[in-house]
Amino acid sequence: MILKQLNQLQSFLETPKNIVIVGHRNPDGDAMGSTLALNHYLKKKGHNPTVVIPNEYPNFLHWLPGSDNTYRFDWQNSQSQRAIKKSDIIFLLDFNALHRVGHDMQNTLEAYENDFVLIDHHQQPDEFTYMFSDTEMCSTCQMIYHFIEKMGDIDLIDSDIATCLYTGIMTDTGSFRFRSTTSLTHRVIANLIDKGAENDRIHSNVYDASSYGRLQLLGQALSNLKVLSAYKTAYITLTDQEKVANNFTKGDTEGIVNYALSIEGVVMAAIFIEDKEQQIIKISFRSKGNFSVNKFARENFNGGGHDNAAGGKSDLNMVETVKKFSDLIIINKEELSNSYEV
Ligand code: 5GP
Ligand code: MN
From CA 139, how far away is CA 128, in angstroms rounded? Predict the structure, then answer.
């Protein structure tokens, strides 16, 4: 765990400040939950915070309290730039390095002259003036809970803050099932329910929000699923054409990789998704046990994340990317075989 200058940050925040809160590109439940929760909290403390997210976030998160009161850097560029320019400090949540916000926003943040606060649970965080980094934590949302606790403000957690934090913890832990889910996570969750998070409604809002198109896309993905049993690996491909044919919208591919990981004996799963706009193949990796997909993604696919959940990208086309992946799996056979004993 890295705790850097948090007492100084507490003193800095004793008087009202203009604050910008940033999550990573393609924000997920943890990025949206943590930025919105911190926004609600800082407002209650008398500050003037603004959430700036790099780009679109999934439909199944649109109900989150406060989500309509955010700027999108790609769409509301001048408002976003203005908020950043007049801010006294910027919070960076749920990512470890500035390049994770995407190219344009990265340039703006690199030119920023005041200090950054990083609150994050990803490995290999870059250095910032103020830091709360803990790679053992299941989610940034749990860290925001502990941050509010460190600031002595647990009493300020209301139902909106609790709802946002519950959502991010739930989505980043696969509904409290990944190894990163600890007894402390469950204690935090219990407190959030006491503070007004309606767990049944949150689960339903996030997980019962499928469209017909999303299920059709899932069907396509599952029929593209390949298992390399000798290497305990399974992967899924989705081409742009397949996305278009199934009315793809943002967030539709979220979680599909877990179907590949759910096959008995599989310890590593990947999904390769063609992104025509960016001209890349976006990849999600998941693993069980010791095989670190963070290391695998960092070394081979220009990515990173956590030991058991990571992402990356490839500039090759789909066929070449899958070929590169398959060759790497052969090299990693031994480690994959020893990753996880049932
Ligand atoms: P997902 O597969 O759900 O998009 O991401 C899994 C984890 O890996 C998340 O914690 C996410 O932040 C991280 N991740 C996804 N894509 C990338 C990437 O391109 N680079 C890095 N460094 N991390 C990524
Ligand atoms: Mn996260």
Answer: 19
